[in-house]
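Sequence and structure are kept together here, with a separate record for every protein. An example record follows, reproduced without changes.
>
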Amino acid sequence: MEHSSSSSVSSLSLKLKPPPSLMTSNLNANSYWRKRKKGRNCLLQASAISYQKFIHFALNETKRHSLLLPSPLQERYGSMIALDGKTRLEMLSFEAPRIRLLRSISIEGEAMQVLDFAAFPKPEFDLPIFCGNFFTAANTNIVVLDLNPLHDVSSRRGYKERYYDSLMPLGLKYTELLPWGGKLTSESIKFFSPIVIWTKFSSSKSKHEVLYSAFMEYYKTWMELTEQAVEDTDPSQIRCNREAQHRYLTWRAEKDPGHGVLKRLIGEKLAKDLLRNFLFSGIDELGSKTFLDYFPEYRSEDGAINERRSIIGKSFETRPWDAKGEFVGNDLRK
């Protein structure tokens, strides 16, 4: 990966798609996260699928409700071209009074289109985590869209009632249009809510319109919850929220299925850096526990982390919640 001068970075910014009004193009001159020089052909071929409008909508919707400012992460993580010299990765990161981190990574290439968009609340709020992961390659689409629960919705009934009971009609509307996508491990299911959209489908204009509609409605709902949320003042509850988010980040940074894609695009070293320090930033700030502290069942005989996605070996082939959002998966595991 090449370094480029400040002038070439500035000239390259003219070749990018029109950005959201809050987008910054700050790229650290000492960082690997930058674009190649202007002379290289780094523009994408025309693609039928683009997730840029998802990002634009979310940023504009956030600005309607809150003051959105660039995150310090934007100084280090901007845009870059993958090792193939063609695929472009673009990172955006922001913060707001109630949002610790709002960030996205979009990957655009001839072979794939990817969006990973997330918004993490500050520890003073027990809000769910907004999660939108979309992967398109050839004619295949893999989608996860959810308001990931910060706390367990089965054991903490009050949390489920506060954040999910009223959202079940919304969830049922879209899970009917975007059916369950097949096997999902028992370990992963713990991080999803009763309204999660986990689906796979062949590319079509109508399906992508439904997906965009779902994204808009889910994000509008999350912003309304954020706006209405009551700030916790009890130090013990704030600590509980912080640890719950740290546990989530630790799991995702270690077991996120996007790791393999990033590794192929930019190499193992940069992929790990991007996962830990950008996509799931907060691991070093919110807590000190390790992955094996939270998930000791993944400890191998030599003390290392078992690389398997699932230790329990159980998965859910059908949706493990009923229409009321009650977990019925104990009878569905395969």
